[in-house]
Amino acid sequence: MDKITLDINGREQAFELEPDQPLLWLLRDELELTGTKFGCGKGLCGACTVQVDGQPARACVTPAAGLAGRQITTIEGAQGRVVEAVKAAWLHLDVAQCGYCQPGQIMAASALLARVPRPSDEEIDQALSANLCRCGTYPRIRAAVHFAAESLATQTTL
Amino acid sequence: MISATDAAMNRRHFLIAAGLASGGFLVGCADSARQQLSDASLSLDDGQIALNGWVKVGPDGRVTVAMAHSEMGQGVHTGLLMLVIEELDCGWDNIGFENAPIDRLYGNVAGMAEGVPFRADDDGLLARSARWTMRHVAQQLGLMMTGGSSSVRDLWPVLREAAAVTRETLIEAVASAKSLAPGALTLEAGRFLVDGKPVMSLGKAVQLLGASPTPATRWTLREPSDFRYIGKPMPRKGASTRLDGTAQFGIDIRRPGMLYAAIRFCPVRAAAVHSFEGGKAAAAPGVRGVIAVPPLGGGTGGVAVVADRYWQARKALALIELESEDAPMAAFSSAAAKARLAQALDGEDGFTFWHKGDPDTEFEQSARQLTAEYSVPWLAHTTLEPMNCTVEYHGDRASVWAPTQVPGMTRAVAAEALGLEPEQVELSVTLLGGGFGRRAEVDFVAQAATIARQFPGRPVQLLWSREDDVQHDFYRPACVSRFTAGLDDKGRIAAWRNTSASQSIVPDFLARTFGMPGMGPDKTTSEGAFDQAYAFPHARVAHVTVDLPVPVGFWRAVGHSHQSFFVESFVDECAHAAGRDPLAYRLELLADHPRERAVLELAAARAGWPQARGAGRALGLALHESFGTLVAQVAEVSLAEGGRIRVHRVVCAVDCGIPVNPNLIAQQMESAVVYGLSAALDGRIDIENGRVQQGNFDDYPMLSLAECPEIETHLVQSTAPPGGIGEPGLPPVAPAVANAVFALTGTRLRALPLTLSA
Lengths: 158, 758
Known about the structure:
The complex is a heterodimer of chains A (158) and B (758). Chain A is an alpha+beta fold and 158 residues long. Chain A is built from 5 helices and 5 strands; from the N terminus they run ββαβββαααα.
């Protein structure tokens, strides 16, 4: 067990961590940040997507102990114009059904838009195809990413 | 050979047995909606009124609906609130819900009534009395259940009447207070109006009524032409909570002092633990206990580890040494099962669900004869939220949090495992991260309660892994179906004979949940095969039930999910054999069915039938009726590298009666198409020596964004009462794709998942 300080949603906290403990369970059970979901435990479904230094990461296969000095952002702490535009687009196009995968989708989509302001369909496919949705909200996710990109671009030019 | 009389006897046997299953007596009941209105059992806050068990109104003008149905993505919370606000217009921001208490009042009548094994056009005495009996059995049974695409159908009259009674009672009070004629008053967005001018707010009117108001005795329901909410694309209630992490699913329940449980199941499905060595696990960090769990509710036995943190419990599972009892499944492998099902078709005629004319003679005398054999594998549900349940046991009472489609059964099963009466258990139904029929089962509830009983005073959350979920499911049955058709000299179908073979779900389900013995016939075995509208002049559709040890359950669209693939593919085969256009051929078979024709024609027109949008692509179509709704789909496909089938576009036309919320309808089409495509392109569960071979999304894949087609939904306008919407979009997608593959390649694929051998 090592004592490790982590920056989660802008707050530094010290934890006693086993070297192999995934970030997911630290978030969900220790910190009760339950917006990050468990779906597969193998990095296959993306329900546990968080951002580490702005890049999407699978919390279920990312050992928390290796994240010292990195900025960890969960759905609860995600803020700023990109994620706000993504959420607004999601609402506008009624994307969510059961909603279970959506925090992960939003973390992945906002990481994409921060990196690629006007993504093509292919870029969206590539960035989001490892975020599975059993309700089949994909067509609306694709449309909502474009919609968010557009609204961000419009804001910029204003 | 089963005669018509035998068939009738079997059906009677089924109905009597269903009556017994209710544990009550069949009594004459008043009209269903009125009866359901009379029985208020809601708890009220200060100043709130309730004139029935469905709708409460507060002195602040807020309306609260007793929500008897579970939200699993299908939008039922939103849809049902729309039924209420249509008759009690408090303003969309002022309506909400709370979970209904567990009471017979909230039992799902429409969902059960659909279980009678008769075609919709069968208006004979037996069919009519069976439907009547089933409705009344359902009322007596009072089974709270979300499933069978039945929620809106079940509550369409009930909620609107409950809201209308409430509105009229308030109007009478306002009229009396203001010396106005009740007929002069209307309610809009939370205000009572006379000639468009507000005279009193809804909240003020509630305050006029006092503690025990008498319900109005007369009310009228709004005509469809006057609807203000129904038919509008109202946004989902609570949508923003799905985006910021605040929506609470079962897995998200957190209680002070909560412990976490993980379970190591016997590898053979449904096996029991013979012995185990848990000492090492018990000594692992954070572990509070190691507990054997018997096979409960049809589930598999296993050993649970309870720890301070889920990760600790999960990790300690590997330290358990576990030996299973011999189980019937251990000798079973799915590779031999297809032959076994086909063999059953060789030897048995099965139960005849539909018999018309003289199909055997007509077949022998037909100009041209076609035969084909189709098959589908077992399938798992894989809700994205794995099975879980949280139980807090206090000796003489308990609290349970569960993502469940069956609240009453969940409470009963938890109570039994805890040694309590159901009334001593308080159940909170959470949001469901997907349901699809998996959460109509209660195995995981019984397990959680069994574990939590060992930790009085401490809440315990049981959470399965994905592998647990894939390997310990209740699977969609594998099925083999044979067709023989006789075509006349013009290529028209003169005789249609179809027999399928599979396990039967309903008797298994009744046995594991109610302890009832099996009974037949089970409509779900043949639904989608015997009940479609095609006007074959001579027909026989039958099913042979085969007993196999695989636990089977209700998967999205149930029997329709595979029977549509069989029927719509074989109709397509007949069309091509006759050298006819598949659309024109179907329309001819539906000459007396204008609703079916309309959806087919709409889908075909919007898809540009028969022309695909590009070279190397082709279209296929399918039509299917299920859960009271008609759906036609046209799929556009091409072949990707390695012969992988690529679906570019699915155009859906829907006649679901009055469309309650077009936005939710479109979403459910998209959802069902994607769910159905995952199964059509990749879904299969293989079993070797009782062990399910798949385990996670790498070997039991679901469709991803990159492979998701464009999906369009077009509605046929209708004033018929609403049909279901959560499932009907699924059945036609597999045959539409298979038919498109045939149009493209000339290869007829008769097995799911659809694969073209290189």
